[in-house]
Automatic annotation (TrEMBL):
Top-rank taxon, per record: Bacteria
Protein name: ArsR family transcriptional regulator
Domain HTH arsR-type, residue spans: 1-93
Keyword annotations: DNA-binding, Transcription, Transcription regulation
Annotated organism of origin: Sutcliffiella tianshenii
UniProt xrefs under InterPro entries: ArsR-like_HTH, HTH_ArsR_DNA-bd_dom, HTH_MetalResp_TranReg, WH-like_DNA-bd_sf, WH_DNA-bd_sf
Pfam families: HTH_5
SUPFAM superfamilies: Winged helix' DNA-binding domain
């Protein structure tokens, strides 16, 4: 049970930030995007955006696919669904 709590704790910490929620919303609306396309839409420097993307990647909230020299980020829908899942709800019943 402790590992389950730790897993959800790290995921919720990752999404408990307004900027990261904004990134997730962009990816939901636009699908896979590279950092260069996100910068003007999100209004933060590339270095800060990359920092937030790394946190979301580490929590497996988003996925990264590299094509040549470009990296494209997309929502990991399975993990987002798990955050809202019956599994989590059942822990508190």
């Amino acid at each position: 049970m402790e590992k389950t709590f730790e897993k959800y704790e790290s995921k919720y910490k990752a999404v408990a930030d307004k900027k990261r929620l904004h990134i997730m919303n962009l990816l939901c609306q636009h699908g896979a995007m590279c950092v260069c396309d996100m910068v003007p839409l999100i209004g933060m420097p590339q270095s800060k955006l990359s920092y937030h993307l790394k946190i979301l990647l580490d929590a497996e909230i988003i996925k990264k696919e590299t094509k040549g020299t470009w990296s494209y980020y997309s929502l990991n829908q399975k993990e987002v669904d798990n955050l809202l899942s019956e599994e989590l709800c059942c822990l508190f019943r």
